[in-house]
Design the sequence.
């Protein structure tokens, strides 16, 4: 009975804090306020001013609807269904936008001089931000 209650409370906590619609996190996932990591992807469900530190490694980031990035330095693949209000995305970043970009700095990588690639999809909105040396697709 105690074990079932623990699982029920964990699922409820996930729903309340993270806004997960599918219930509890996948086995092996780790989480914090407004984010969780599962299958090597960081999922943002709240507002993050920087990537989580001390968490498991991840190779991509997905901003869920209702989630947002407000600061920090971001790398690798970033898929946006929420909002990018701030942050730095350097040349090692590929941004796939389905949501809103209203701020942030998208710049070349200082080591390799590679540009940040931004794909703005059909429903994507770009209303702000600084794009220096970025490639748009």
Sequence:
């Amino acid at each position: 009975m105690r074990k079932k209650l623990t699982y029920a409370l964990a699922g409820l906590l996930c729903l309340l804090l993270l806004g997960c619609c599918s219930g509890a996190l996948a086995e092996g996932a780790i989480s914090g306020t407004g984010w969780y990591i599962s299958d090597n992807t960081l999922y943002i469900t709240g507002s993050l001013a920087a990537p989580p530190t001390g968490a498991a490694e991840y190779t991509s980031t997905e901003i869920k609807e209702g989630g947002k990035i407000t600061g920090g330095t971001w790398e690798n693949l970033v898929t946006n269904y929420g909002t990018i209000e701030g942050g730095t995305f350097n040349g090692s970043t590929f941004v796939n936008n389905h949501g809103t970009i209203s701020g942030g700095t998208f710049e070349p990588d200082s080591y390799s001089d590679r540009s940040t690639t931004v794909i703005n999809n059909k429903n994507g909105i770009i209303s702000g931000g600084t794009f220096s040396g970025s490639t748009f697709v």
Q: What stands out?
A: The two ends are 54 Å apart (CA to CA).
